[in-house]
Amino acid sequence: MWDVIVIGSGIGGLTSAGLLAGVGDKKVLVLEKHSEPGGLTHVFRRDGASWDVGLHYIGNVGPDSKTRQLFDWLSYGKLQWNKLPDDFDRFIYPDFQFNVPSDPALYKARLIARFPAEARAIKRYFRDINLCSLWATMGFVRAFVPQKVAPIVGVLQRLTSRKSLQTTQQYMEKNFRSPLLRALLVSQWGDYGVPPANSAFAIHAQIVKHYLNGAWYPQGGAGRIARTFEKRIESRGGAVRVCQQATEIVLEEGRAVGVKVIDRRGPEPREVIYRAPTIISNIGLENTFQSLLPTDGEIGSKTAAIREWIERLKGNGISAVTLYLRLKAPVSTLGVQGENYWINTCTDHGDLRLHSASLMKGHPTQIYVSFPSAKAGDDRFHTAEIISFVLPDAFSAWQNTPKGQRGHAYAAQKKQVAEGLLQLAEVSLPGLTQLVSYYELSTPLTMEHYTSHPRGGFYGLPATPERYSTYLLGPTTPIAGLYISGTDAGCLGIVGALMGGVGAAAQAMGARGYPLIQAALKEPLPPLPTYPLPAEKQRAVLINKTQLTATIWHLYFELDSPLAAFEPGQFGRLRVADYEWRDYSIMRAEDRRIEFVIDTRTGGDGSVFVKQASVGLQTEIELPLGHYALVKNAKRKVFIATGTGIAPFLPMFNQLTQEGTINTAELLFGCPTWVDDITRHFSPLPPTKTLCLSRVDVVPDGAFKGRVTDALNGLHFDPATTDFYVCGSAAMVMDCQVLLEEKGAKNMFIERY
Fold first, then answer.
1. Would you say 164 and 468 are in contact if contact means Cβ atoms under 8 Å apart?
2. Structural element, H or E, at residue 183
3. Of the candidates 244, 581, 345, 613, which has an alpha carbon nearest to the alpha carbon of residue 354?
């Protein structure tokens, strides 16, 4: 069915797929567990605003760089970049601040001016950065060069291996006298996720070298990467297929020949086997060798050394919490132009256990602050992120609880952590707290849920000296037909994963793979070809459009073919602009006709699309997706919605009516005034409906004056026999969740938009 299957749509997997499609002319299937492609390059949205989850900035993508050349080729030149301010990183300590410039000579000069007694050591440091970065690069190059040349590269590496394989802390203590200078130089250790006491100096050198000429960020946001790369894959008959949870690599006679997955796109999960002669895993060595392959028998013997090595390394891994902030005004009002802030309360970067404990008490000692909207060049929405590293076991008390139902204690812990992060950021960015209109915190459990990274690991296998001293790294494996891409085949970070993808594609194409890739990259970029849509997507034609309120529209689309299956509560993904897709709950699906209720008040790309769309417009749609659905039981069902949050409930009400159980349901619907009550346009509805009007002086008979949360607060219910379904704005959903948890609710099914 396929020439190549890639497990995981992170940048390493997409790179391998794009190169094999475009250079190797292969039909490639990319399988992604999440409903959104891109791995840690994807973004998530709330009320029009978006945040990156793993890509915060990239170095070495200037117009003439090799990395930029690769990005351009994979995206048909459609991925554009914004340069961050010249002083792109700010290292902040008590009573001390240092700005990192986008020029190595100026960087060196600033350090010497601040620490003149360390001038010789600083100059030597920059020489060692170049030398040890080259050493690490040569180790990766060994995966590309012919086997006869590889030993020569190994000899060249050994000349500088001692310096490269010491820890970063050992290098600093040996070469610098000033504790402040040592701390300053390792301030961005979060870019490689291993503290100085454990990280190899080689990875520190690579990261510092990577940013010596400044930093960039994708124009329009990190989500553009997956959406531009997928064109390469689709143009050769391939596809990026979401909601595909890989459970096993299928083997025949010791060779990888397919992937078994749980396909979660339809109403019911189903097991599917996809077959191909070449399999590339982009989900990390640990997931690949300990979860997708047998650990016993012949295969277990072949992979035993790798699995033992993984066990030794993974103990050094860390995770992170991220606080996502929606702001009321541009960060320029704080004097921020898009630069990053590394804020520290002390110069000790070593005691992670103490830092984790302090973080959980609401007193973080180290944070990283980033501003996605400013970097992306989007002045419609204003966003910020605060990240702090944490040991993976910090949230272990909730390890086996389902997402969205982890209880009041978990919510209280998250609130304490979030408030602590914001308080520390406020010290260096006064006024930030007053700008916050909404926030949301992710934990290691969130990371593990969406990415399957064991223990919520923020990176691949830790970049310790042991990792760099072994030759188990690289894209090849002991299993015929199976290759590894991403960070565990290359280096940590986005570009490291990108190069891991190059390595896997080169090896999969055989001895001439890398020369073929190099030759293709030197050719002029061809125009983006036209091609048939993959099976995952359909052409959608707008056949009717009705305005319900000043900002809410009812849209009817006709598809090329009927939906095979649809579960009330699922959503469709509409292409609303070039390389921009938005998710909308399906309010009705019959045969080839799909209906949506869409609010345009946010002013984003989806809003512009809906406002400008006229009957006859053609676009693309991917559907149905999502797991939001009715739980079949005899419990009381309370539906809570505001605005277009009613959309996923409308087909549920129809389902309950057909089953004869609509009397078990009741609806709390919130809107500003009676004019905004869109429920009057739809039927069936539950017989018990409470209309909550928040901006009126007088309410009609039977309505409630106040917000929907006010009405919910007065609701009497038995937690054991009541299910709550909540859908609406992120802030409203969070308020309802907190309120219900405090009142003892056990069963909450939540959908944010």
1. yes
2. helix 179-185
3. 345
